[in-house]
Task: inverse folding
């Protein structure tokens, strides 16, 4: 698919013009998979970027270049993709550490703080990503922001019976919560854990460390999508001179 995209883009005289965001995601997803070493326990993130990582891990295993890895999925989606591409899986009950986790993000600030949860998987992602000895984030350049909350609302996973009091508590904090609704499914999005998601807009997130704690202290909140002080490396897919490239910080 990747080669085809490049071919058709080049044929049209615009190497990445067909879908630059997709090409950036492919390039950065593959770059992260290339960092995984044989024998590693790997946290498998969720989303369209890490889907390429999982695909490439499977290709490296199949070619014999990579051996003896096991993945810890962060969602039903990553579990299905790992099975599809032949990446063996394990659970947190069967291991005592994670060597490397690779995951996407919806926003990344200059301090490497994140907003995650665009796929409603941030609770399991946070468990796996925070356990990893090395946590690598893979994003296209459109995800970089000066300040968290500039473009994306903060996803908050809430147990269903508490949705009304949690909504009220978040409004008192100055947030504007909106219940995430399903696409091609009537009613709210239901997470892999059977809960609901409030997408919360804040005028400005000046202190992500405190906001993460404050949101999680509301009774009925399971987890929110602010990730702070946990990322080792950010890989950014960009387009330079018509070609997808990867830079890191
Ligand atoms: C899912 C996530 C994703 O990692 C995040 O939404 C980025 O997704 P994509 O790679 O599709 O842009 O946090 O809960």
Result:
């Amino acid at each position: 698919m990747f080669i085809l995209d490049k071919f058709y883009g080049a044929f049209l005289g615009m190497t990445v013009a067909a879908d630059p965001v997709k090409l950036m995601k492919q390039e950065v997803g593959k770059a992260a998979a290339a960092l995984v070493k044989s024998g590693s326990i790997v946290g498998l993130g969720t989303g369209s970027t890490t889907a390429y990582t999982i695909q490439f891990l499977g290709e490296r295993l199949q070619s014999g270049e990579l051996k003896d890895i096991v993945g810890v999925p962060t969602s039903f989606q990553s579990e299905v993709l790992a099975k599809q591409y032949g990446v063996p899986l394990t659970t947190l009950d069967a291991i005592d550490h994670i060597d490397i986790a690779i995951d996407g993000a919806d926003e990344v600030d200059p301090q490497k703080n994140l907003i995650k949860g665009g796929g409603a998987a941030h609770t399991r992602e946070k468990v796996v990503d925070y356990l990893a000895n090395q946590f690598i984030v893979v994003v296209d350049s459109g995800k970089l922001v000066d300040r968290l909350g500039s473009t994306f609302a903060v996803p908050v996973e809430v147990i269903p019976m508490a949705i009304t009091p949690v909504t009220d508590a978040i409004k008192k904090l100055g947030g504007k919560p909106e219940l995430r609704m399903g696409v091609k499914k009537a009613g709210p999005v239901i997470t892999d854990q059977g809960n609901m998601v409030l997408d919360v807009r804040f005028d400005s997130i000046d202190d992500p460390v405190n906001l993460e704690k404050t949101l999680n202290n509301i009774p009925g909140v399971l987890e929110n999508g602010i990730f702070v002080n946990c990322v080792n490396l950010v890989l950014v897919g960009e387009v330079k001179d018509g070609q997808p490239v990867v830079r890191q910080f």
About this structure: Residues 54 and 81 are 7 Å apart (CA to CA). DSSP finds seven helices and 13 strands in the chain. The first strand starts at residue 41 and ends at 44.
